[in-house]
Design a protein that fits this description.
Layout (H helix, E strand, L loop, with lengths): L16 E4 L2 E4 L1 E3 L2 E3 L4 E5 L6 E6 L3 H20 L3 H17 L1 H12 L3 H16 L1 H5 L5 E4 L9 E9 L2 E5 L5 H13 L4 E5 L6 H12 L7 E3 L8 H5 L5 E5 L2 H11 L3 E5 L4 E5 L5 H13 L9 E7 L3 H15 L18 H16 L3 E4 L12 E5 L1 H4 L3 H4 L6 E7 L2 H9 L3 E2 L1 E5 L3 H10 L4 E4 L15 E2 L2 E2 L12 E9 L10
Parallel strand pairs: 9-10, 9-12, 10-11, 12-13, 14-15, 14-20, 15-18, 17-18, 20-21
Antiparallel strand pairs: 1-2, 3-4, 5-6, 7-8, 8-24, 13-23, 16-17, 19-22
Bound molecules: NADP nicotinamide-adenine-dinucleotide phosphate.
């Protein structure tokens, strides 16, 4: 296997790193300046754990100065950029990402371990999200409230302005570094907020390249920054009063930690998941098996909306089991993501593969039976696993109680939809669910009782670019991401009440 290394070709990116002893040392962007470091964090590829780059580890005083500059100056620069111009900037960003498409695909393959198809999908989604900022613009309106409903407020009226909250901290997970950052940029800045981006330490490179794209596209220089700092050292930042909203996508544990330190702020928290797929007696089983398998193996299960639990009604259970196993055997090819025939690349790090392996042991100890996969093929390479478990043994299992961020699904036989609801709602997470079937009464019951943020009928859950809003309930989060929907969490209402009492202007004659 050829050693992993970056191959960034466009000369525009050559300004953001310097190669020393064969390793690119990246700079980061702090409100108008590209800064190197005196301390560095290593970035490794999950393909072979080779060091592919280094990024600066910033000090608190650099971050403090950046927040101050953005709070005092940058938040007004973006607010005073007309909306029409903001849309033009997103369009330019989209066309620059398209122009540098091969570099972005390469970095997503090498830094994230994505297959080419998956990397291309993320690049396309990022472009589409930028273009679709025009739809967010339509949601940026406020209200007019007449005061004629009580004698107290007669002859008054209010305009309810929806204002940008100011400076938003965007904390990005490792799994969709380019798309997730683009999404957070669009919905925070389209209405005029400044943005401070905290990239994941494992996959920061697409985000540093995106900062260059923002600069080239003419984004107000002092209205954004990328702060490269390990998550565990972020307490001062999240607590900072100059930051008025935090949009975080990450694990439930990280969300809890951030809320604990942040104090009073507005939050969007897109947290842990792992979704149930419920298969009813009258489902098209061939279709259901195909879609469920895609939901299990896509990006090696490192998606919040990955299928982690399959609940099948007893009459079709055996049939579905056979079809899913067949489909897995047909679809899974674990290997180096640079090999075009690979469908399942590595997981992000050794710790994740260890956790996955231990969770399989735990499931087997508790009576689970492996129907497919489950082999550890290398330090970061795993074979997607399907484990048959009973509904009685399920509830103590690690896989049921905790999100393991790797390809694994439990298959459970249920008597009816009531049991499916009980098992689905028994998890601490409530991100999405899938239902396969036709019976409208059963579907209606599931729709009514499942405690989740989105339900996909006859398809596996996938958030896509957010045409349909997504977000979790329970430990899966707060708020919604989705075109037009997220504006609510990064704005504040301000009511301006006009009093015309006694001015005589209310009388016509
Ligand atoms: P993670 O370990 O929680 O990290 C997410 C981000 O939070 C990273 O940038 C991380 O920085 C940062 N972070 C960690 N501790 C922090 C702290 N105390 N204060 C501030 N920031 C902190 O999650 P991940 O492994 O990157 O991503 C996988 C998780 O994201 C899964 O649980 C998945 O379900 C969830 N996710 C949810 C959605 C959704 O829509 N609900 C979408 C995608 C992913 P470092 O990397 O430097 O630690």
């Amino acid at each position: 296997m050829e050693k992993s290394s970056l191959n960034i070709k466009s000369k525009e990116f050559s300004e953001i790193f310097e190669v020393k002893e064969g390793i690119p040392y990246f700079k980061t962007y702090l409100a108008g300046q590209w800064i190197g470091g005196d301390e560095w964090q290593e970035v490794v590829s999950p393909i072979d754990l080779n060091t592919i780059a280094k990024i600066p580890r910033l000090h608190w005083n650099q971050i403090d100065n950046t927040i101050d500059f953005i709070y005092k100056k940058g938040r007004w620069s973006i607010r005073d950029t007309p909306g029409e111009k903001r849309l033009k900037i997103y369009e330019r960003m989209a066309s620059l990402i398209d122009r540098f498409r091969e570099d972005f695909i390469n970095v997503l393959i090498i830094n994230n371990g994505k297959t080419r198809a998956s990397a291309e999908g993320e690049v396309n989604a990022s472009i589409e999200r930028l273009i679709r900022a025009d739809l967010d613009v339509r949601q940026t309106k406020g209200d007019y409230v007449p005061g004629d409903w009580s004698s107290e407020t007669l002859e008054t009226e209010a305009v309810v302005r929806r204002e940008p909250i100011g400076v938003v901290l965007a904390v990005v997970p490792f799994n969709y570094p380019l798309f997730d950052t683009v999404n957070k940029i669009v919905y925070t800045t389209v209405i005029g907020n400044a943005i401070i981006i905290k990239p994941p330490s494992s996959t920061p490179l697409p985000i540093l390249m995106l900062a260059k794209v923002m600069e080239l596209a003419g984004f107000p220089k002092d209205s954004f920054a990328v702060i490269t700092l390990p998550g565990k050292d972020m307490n001062n930042v999240v607590a900072d009063k100059r930051i008025q909203a935090i949009s975080l996508t990450g694990s439930t544990e990280t969300g809890e930690e951030v809320i604990k330190h942040a104090g009073i702020k507005q939050f969007i928290m897109e947290l842990g998941g792992g979704d149930p797929a419920i298969v009813l007696v009258d489902a098209d089983l061939v279709w259901a098996a195909q879609r469920i398998v895609t939901g299990i193996i896509s990006y090696t299960g490192q998606r919040c909306d990955s299928v982690k639990l399959v609940l099948a009604e007893e009459e079709i259970y055996d049939n579905l089991k056979e079809l899913i196993v067949k489909e897995l055997a047909k679809s899974v090819k674990v290997g180096d993501p640079r090999d075009p025939s690979t469908t399942v690349g590595p997981v992000i790090d050794v710790k994740t593969a260890d956790e996955w392996e231990n969770a399989i042991k735990d499931a087997i100890e508790k009576g689970g039976k492996i129907l497919f996969g489950g082999r550890r093929i290398g330090p970061t390479y795993i074979e997607p696993v399907l484990i048959e478990v009973t509904k009685e043994s399920l509830k103590d299992m690690y896989f049921y109680n905790k999100e393991v961020f790797a390809s694994a699904a439990l298959l459970v036989k249920v008597k009816n939809v009531d049991e499916a609801i009980e098992i689905s709602n028994g998890r601490r997470y409530g991100l999405d669910a899938a239902i396969f079937g036709k019976d409208i009464n059963k579907i209606r019951k599931l729709q009514r009782f499942l405690e989740v943020g989105a339900i996909y009928i006859n398809d596996y859950p996938r958030h896509g670019i957010g045409y349909f809003p997504f977000g979790g309930r329970k430990d899966s989060g707060i708020g919604r991401e989705g075109i037009g929907y997220t504006i609510e969490y990064v704005t504040a209402y301000k009511s301006i009440i006009y009093n015309y009492k006694g001015k005589g202007i209310w009388e016509y004659l």
